[in-house]
């Protein structure tokens, strides 16, 4: 397994001139044609609360593929993350090469991993500046490559689980129905909820049943043969990591007095892309209200999950990794100059995460 930069020597960088250049994969146009170019850039000094990381590995997640096709452009432009050309990528794992003046938690040479918010200066690069609070110390026994595939997916999954009303304290004995259970978020959610004592009913294709069982699913539903709407109204919580089309049907599977539902596949960004800010937001509010009205009696939680590098979620990720639960299968490893192949792997839904090794 390639573990580039694992032989990193911190003395090589201490006191070195930080204006030397880095390389990054520039995504050229939001046209889905996979137009990428390698660019060189001048590395900046970290702001007081930032660290610079020499990236050893960075995942290509489904969101990167969609952003490369222009998805979310209007909303993300509001935070400077929608204007092309841009560098994609949220996840990073690597070594600290420079530390901002107010950072006390990391030193040059530390092995770190984490996720940064959506930006135009993503992690598909040799070096990236991130806020120190968005980085975690990598355990010495974990390779950086496998850690790079985790943070964005884990944090989003954790926010969804919490959004549906599930916590470590209340999860034991709860029945959770999960759509998209064999994917990255689904695998991590099944592992975490099983460890918390919940029973997970996994909706997936039969070819993915083994993956779901290994993650801890207690029951399996074949999504090619059993429509979600035919399932019983008996679940304490429902999670949608698969498709917006089934969101109402999943809500219908909640029992009266259940905890709630969260979806990561809601149409908000798409609505704003298609209809503009005002009409897109109004349509999203109306779609959300329609589903809130459909919640069974006594169910309070209904959440459209959006990734953000939440501190509590990162703390949970660190524990999850320490307990040895945290890894996702890596399906493809590519250098930056072959980024198009990594994006293609993710776009086609091939097994395992794709990671870029700068
Ligand atoms: N809102 C946010 O901030 C946010 C953040 C992270 C992820 N997401 C989204 O959340 C979703 C899950 O992420 P992920 O990383 O877990 O993706 P993933 O690894 O691609 O997994 C998605 C899973 O859903 C299944 N699926 C997709 N469409 C389906 C359908 N129509 N019927 C049945 N199963 C279906 C897939 O099964 P097959 O492979 O068998 O089709 C796969 O197992 C993605 O759509 C991603 O873009 C949103």
Question: What name goes with the CATH superfamily of the largest domain?
Answer: Medium-chain alcohol dehydrogenases, catalytic domain
Gyration radius, rounded: 20 Å
- The structure class reads alpha/beta
Q: What is CATH's topology name of the largest domain?
A: Quinone Oxidoreductase, Chain A, domain 1
Q: What is the end-to-end distance? A: 15 Å
- Put simply, the count of helices is 10
Oligomer: single chain
Q: Which series of helices and strands comes N to C?
A: EEEHHEEEEHHEHEHEEHEHEHEHE
What is the number of beta strands? 15
CATH architecture of the largest domain: Alpha-Beta Complex
Largest sheet: number of strands, sense, barrel closure? 7 strands, mixed
> Taking all residues together, what is the mean pLDDT?
93
Name the overall outline: globular
| Assigned CATH class of the largest domain | Alpha Beta
Number of domains: 2
List all distinct small molecules, including ions and cofactors, that are bound in this structure.
Answer: NADP nicotinamide-adenine-dinucleotide phosphate
Report low-confidence residues grouped into runs of 5 or more. 1-18
In which range does the helix fraction lie?
A: 25-40%
Describe it for me?
- The chain is α/β, with parallel strands linked by helices.
- It has helices at 62-68, 73-77, 144-148, 151-163, 184-195, 209-215, 247-251, 268-293, 311-322, 339-347, and strands spanning 21-27, 36-42, 50-60, 91-99, 111-115, 127-131, 135-137, 175-179, 199-204, 219-222, 237-240, 260-263, 301-304, 330-334, 353-356.
- Strands 3, 4, 5, 6, 7, 14 and 15 form a 7-stranded mixed beta sheet that branches. Strands 10-9-8-11-12-13 form a 6-stranded parallel beta sheet, with helices on both faces. The chain has a two-stranded antiparallel sheet with strand order 1-2.
- Strand 12 (260-263), helix 8 and strand 13 (301-304) form a beta-alpha-beta unit.
- Helix 1 (62-68) crosses helix 10, helix 4 (151-163) packs across helix 5 and helix 4 crosses helix 9 (311-322).
- The model is unreliable at 1-18 (pLDDT under 50).
- Residues 61-63, 153, 156, 180, 182-186, 205, 208, 223, 241-243, 264-265, 305-307, 349 line the site of NADP nicotinamide-adenine-dinucleotide phosphate (NAP).
């Amino acid at each position: 397994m390639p573990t580039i930069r694992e032989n990193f020597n911190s003395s090589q960088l201490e006191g070195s001139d930080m204006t030397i250049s880095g390389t990054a994969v520039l995504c050229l146009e939001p046209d889905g044609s996979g137009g990428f170019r390698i660019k060189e850039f001048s590395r900046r000094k970290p702001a007081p609360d930032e660290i610079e990381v020499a990236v050893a590995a960075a995942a290509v997640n489904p969101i990167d593929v969609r952003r490369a096709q222009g998805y979310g452009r209007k909303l993300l432009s509001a935070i400077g993350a929608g204007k092309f050309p841009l560098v994609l990528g949220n996840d990073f794992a690597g070594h600290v090469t420079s530390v901002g003046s107010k950072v006390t938690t990391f030193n040059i040479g530390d092995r770190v991993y984490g996720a940064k918010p959506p930006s135009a200066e993503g992690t598909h690069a040799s070096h990236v500046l991130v806020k120190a609070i968005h980085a975690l110390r990598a355990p010495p026994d974990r390779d950086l490559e496998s850690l790079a595939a985790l943070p964005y997916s884990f944090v989003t999954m954790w926010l969804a689980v919490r959004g549906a009303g599930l916590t470590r304290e209340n999860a034991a004995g709860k029945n959770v129905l999960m759509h998209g259970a064999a994917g990255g978020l689904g695998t991590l959610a099944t592992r975490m909820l099983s460890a918390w004592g919940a029973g997970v009913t996994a909706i997936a294709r039969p070819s993915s049943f083994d993956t779901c069982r290994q993650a801890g699913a207690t029951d399996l539903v074949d999504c090619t043969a059993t429509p979600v709407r035919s399932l019983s109204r008996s679940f304490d919580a429902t999670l949608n990591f698969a498709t917006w089309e089934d969101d109402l049907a999943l809500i219908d599977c909640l029992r009266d007095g259940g905890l709630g539902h969260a979806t990561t596949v809601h149409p908000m960004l798409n609505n704003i892309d298609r209809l503009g800010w005002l009409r897109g937001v109004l349509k999203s509010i109306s779609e959300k209200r329609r589903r809130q009205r459909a919640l069974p009696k006594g169910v309070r939680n209904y959440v459209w999950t959006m990734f953000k590098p939440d501190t509590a979620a990162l703390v949970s990720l660190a524990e999850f990794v320490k307990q040895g639960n945290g890894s996702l299968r890596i399906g493809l490893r590519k250098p930056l100059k072959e980024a198009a192949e990594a994006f293609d792997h993710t776009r086609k839904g091939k097994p395992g995460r794709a990671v870029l090794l700068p």
